[in-house]
Amino acid sequence: PPFDGDSRFAFPDWAYKPESSPGSRQIQLWHFILELLRKEEYHDVIAWQGDYGEFVIKDPDEVARLWGARKCKPQMNYDKLSRALRYYYNKRILHKTKGKRFTYKFNFNKLVLVNYPFIDMGSGRVPQSAPPVPTGGSHFRFPPSTPSDVLSSSEELRSPGMFSSVARRMARGSVSDCSDGTSTNSELEEAVGADERGVGPDRAYRGLLPPRLPHESLFRIYPNPGLSRHGPRVHPDSLSPFPVSPLPGPGGLLAPTLSPALSMTPTPHLPYTPSPSLSSPMLGSHFSFNPEDMKHYLQAHTQSVYNYHLSPRAFLHYPNIIIPQPHRPTLEKPAAHHLHGPPLPLSHSLGHQPGGGEDGLHHPSPFKFKLQPPPLGRKQRESGSLSASASSSCSSSSQFSSFTGSSQAAGPPKIKVEPISDIESEEEVEVTDISEEDDLNQNDRDDETNGTGSSFSAPPHPDDDGDDDEVFKTPATPTISGGIGGGLAGGLAVLPPVLLKSEPGQAAPISPGGTLCIPLKLRFKRRWNEDQKMEAGGERDEAEDKKVRAEEEEREGRREGTGEVANGGGGAGGVILGLMLPPPPTQRRASSELQRATAQLSLENTGC
DNA sequence: TCCGGAAGGG
DNA sequence: CCCTTCCGGA
Q1: Does residue A50 carry a pLDDT above 70?
Q2: Quick one: which of A226, A341, A374, A487 has the fewest CB in 10 Å?
Q3: CA-based nearest residue to A499, from A552, A561, A565, A447
């Protein structure tokens, strides 16, 4: 068993694929890192270590060299590379593991959970794809008769909505500079993971699926949760950045057992950070999810709907799934009223950890807050260093970028921040952000509760591994729906945020499913945030908060007057959204093209 | 070592 | 946007 490299640190394919990033064709560092991490040959250079998602750069110089080679930047060094890594802090893609040299940690919890709440690394024979958020029209089938395989094209993986900025970024990988979309071999899609396990037998399955239910091919539901994981044994040494998912509480109809993975400790000697919604990391880079996870997710989603008046349309049809009533009974109208099944105590969605799941780690939460001095004037450095960057013509073209990058024009920006999110912002969203720290139960700021104009975020889950909270995004594309299955051409047809928000105190629009969308979103959000603050001990990182707020403001300001609509954030935003929705048949070609164009992601620097 | 501002490039 | 380059500071 072994330590067979490749499968050990398998990541979901979407993590490597850049399809959703038409705008940025350049390979991104985190992406590159991920790749190095997955390659056995680089284990002496960089490797997973410690907590999930935590990795150590064993040979900084080498990593830098590789990165430099990849980017055709011969002058690259660890100092520079690390600077780039530090930029990820704000983006929440990474954070530093303090005290450990050259050690960083991916925010996979968030990244994964946000997008694919029930992803499971559990068995190698599962689809790597992420479960998309079931949409109104499609029914969820439990279980599928056949294990479906991966859908490599993330367009198909993208779940409508449920994107946080980070997630978006995360998903927005990039392609190799030097080798890009010229490839026509669609098989290359798996190129990245080519070195790995079987993409399996069931690949063909995809083709059998009715076009209208692309999701199904994405899902692999455990026919028999609990057994499935016993097959492929995992080597103790296995590491995966993905946390396990302890689904608390007695399950619903379909969640009879806890995932065996829960008891697994990939790295016995190392700290283990379990997280809900994710199951056993292991072998494979395949994803799957089981009913428990589904339930978990649905609960969360429900909660979201409940708290933020999201469109519950996604809940319309989930046979056999019991969606627990969300907490906060104070709310008059349960958004989930239309759901089957009796309400279950949502022990984990909100409030505290049930203590049940073995992830009942309750870190004492030694919050550390860094207070930053108010941004004063900026120092002006006038040394005109003319560094001739090593020329390179590696990069490819980006035919998509339609950005009108006019971020900060006139007016002295008060605080300059690496924006965490892009496009749109929620009105005065009270951000609750706590700087990330390992072993903390932190509440992330609700990173962009706005997504592509149609997403909302839900409260974080305290039952998380304490490293991150999840932010579930749900599609709020109410009006379009109806039979929009493939209606949204590539998802480009998006409703402007406006349509998604109802006036306070006003009855919300009725979604196709006949569900009400309650307004007051913000109010509850604030409420939530407050709760979070309380939980966090009332403390929070002011500086961070400020920054975040500044960002929000900035975005706000930017948006104002631009008449920006959903797609206004730039081509990327729109496209991403498009990818998030199951592509209608007619969009397939484009998708696959994009897919092809972005499939290959090699470490090799083919053209410098 | 690590951090993050500033400026610039593509 | 996503770094790359530089750099002062902790």
Answers
A1: yes
A2: A374
A3: A565
